[in-house]
Amino acid sequence: DVIAGAGGRLHFVKFESRRLPQLFDFIESKRMHILEGAGTEGGGAKPIVKATGGGAYKHVEDFSSRLGLELEKVDEMESLVTGTNFLLSVIQDEGFTFWKGKKDYISIQNDSSDLFPYLLVNIGSGVSLLKVDGHNQYERVSGTSLGGGTFWGLGRLLTGCTSFDELLELSTRGDNSSVDMLVGDIYGGLDYEKIGLEATTIASSFGKILMNEDKSLEDYEPADMALALCRMISYNIAQIAYLNAKKYNLKRIFFGGFFIRGHPFTMQTLSYAINFWSKGEMRALFLRHEGFLGALGAFLMYEEGVSSNIIRTLSERRHSRANFVERFSIQAKHYSPPPQAQDSQVPPGPPQRAHSEKSWVEKFMQVGRLSAGLGGKDDPPSSPDYAAGVSEYDLWGAETNSLSSGLEVGVLHVDPSLYQFPLLEDPSSYEPSVIDISMDEEQRSYWIGVLERQIPSTSEKAMASLGETEEAKQKCDAFKWMFGSHLEKLRKEPQVYGKFGLSEILEMREECLRECGFKDVYLRQKKSENEAAIKVLPDLLAELDAMDEPTRLLSLIEGVLAGNIFDWGSQACVELYKNGTILDIYKQARSDLKSRPWRVDHFDAFRAKMLAHTAANRRYRRAIILVDNSGADIVLGMLPLARELLQRGTEVVIAANSLPALNDITAPELRQLAKQAGRVCQVIRGGLETANALYKKYRTMPQVQPVTPASPAYSPLYIIENGQGGPCLNMRRVSHDLAMAAEGADLVVLEGMGRAIHSNYTTDFACDTLKLAMVKNRMLAETLFNGEIYDCVMKFETMRGGLSAHPVTT
Asked: Most C-beta atoms within 10 A of its C-beta, which of 15, 84, 630, 724?
């Protein structure tokens, strides 16, 4: 459902062939088989569905007779390559290696020089090896008839297994040494050192059977034969793949097909084989969306149709990953609370969910309680038959069995309005999260624990925001269950959602709140804190104006650091709120601010730069300020800093959240707040008026304006959205205005623990950068700074090679 110019979503849902009747029910319930504007069923043009694979031939009559749909067959290899190229281009952590149960996501830049060429090994019934040189450029260079069909066919005869998954699971319990002839069997249990073969290396698959002529099929363990068969097929495929990669000088080998299906055992076997044949020089690579490659490629091959054209065009952008955001909506179905959950942060059983706030899965499948464990009061009673056979495989793309790889695919949101931030020094290595909890077990355990303990207080605030009605309680229960399930999955499978850092989990919490119907949990607090802070702004500005320049610069930075204590995402801050008003806390924070030098203290360098500008009558051309919290933080901290820059002749762009998150200020709120500040400060009012005039003139975010005698009296103060909806900041995807504002900017200010420490603290920018925050978490302070709670961070980094400041006048 992608709309021209407005984006949309790509959903990944699987239906097994044996559930074709349920698929037809699904299509009919959503009226997908009826063309828009075609009138009643049976009239108008016949809808065409792109289809690939064997089912495109086998089920033509089924789709036609039941739904009146025409299946248009798409070449299987072409659709496979198209889908793979698309996913590798637009999803940062699509590809991964798998070794001894651990996934390691690889970094591939979405430009042709890094992505291509590669070898794609599709393991279906047989095996095809495709050399992919670019978009729509590929050739089949090799293949083998010994593939997944061979494994399943022989395995069924040898073991009696009745399903592919049963055969794979059986192989995990086997010992192939009773079936395979090993090097040690030939050389008396010894290695063949001269040619580098260990005693455990397979010399002949199933060869040991010849050494035991008295044994029959019944004398061998089915599990041993299953393992021997799996390794025989996998090692053969891996060797052919490696030899072709060497022949064509390809640095990457991706494996896909139904033989893989995300099963850890097959991935590990292929990984071992590639490592063996390449002597450790190459690694087998796999895809998170394996299983959807052909279908996605077929969709993208529609020559007409707004959705496919938009997505295809966006995927070919230089920085296309900004336009595709994967979000996960697993809800509570994966979460099992402990028996003593009566006193825990999550409810002991499936809560009732407000029926008006169904997720897309519930709306699509109409399964209510089954899909989320959160049925509404109007939903029919839950029963095994209610969902017409819908399983986890259908909804999430991974069957429930003991071989689960711990991989989830989400909903791919398409947003044409997002862009990569142009001032990143090295976009190819950029990672927003400073702490990668997927790789650090200690950090993961700590932060998941922190977030779990915050669920009750967050739920309390959420309920209060809706008036503590019965519907609000249902929504709160839904949020507890939903976010709790995410945390539990991450605890068990740290890489289940890809390369997930702390900033992504914090954003996920906000997404859960929004999905449960809580649009702005802290709205009342933000409003009251803004009103309280704006009342004392005139006195603060008067105090600042009475200071000399060096003293004023220090006071401005101290004001930002003190104001940044107001953060409802910090438990330490929550405790402070219980003991005083916003002004009491702000005054106490100013007086208790740790003396210099702060934990990270680059203030002297910053002050020297500013004083040098003053002495030379120079300025920063444009400053981009990425702000954090409402109340004292923005009003008494960041607005005075912005005012200082405006008075120096610098254009100021303040970027705030597009969507609410905790008590962070949003751009619409900031626009209203700045107008109020403008009533008591002519510099702010003049800056807003200049910016509005320039917007009207250019009808877009203006470039930096030249300073001439005819320039307006006040430098422009722009207030824009940052394109984000979480407490951190991912510079891979920012709003169009923020990307435009970066052109000509020579100072970036990141403020707050989420934007300047949790994310982006180690990020280098192609201009001067100021990072300001008070550390309100003990673990974070100790991990990053060997410090303690309430330490202050004032990090000033100048552009490499120095900055050429610009004159105030020409």
From this structure: 630
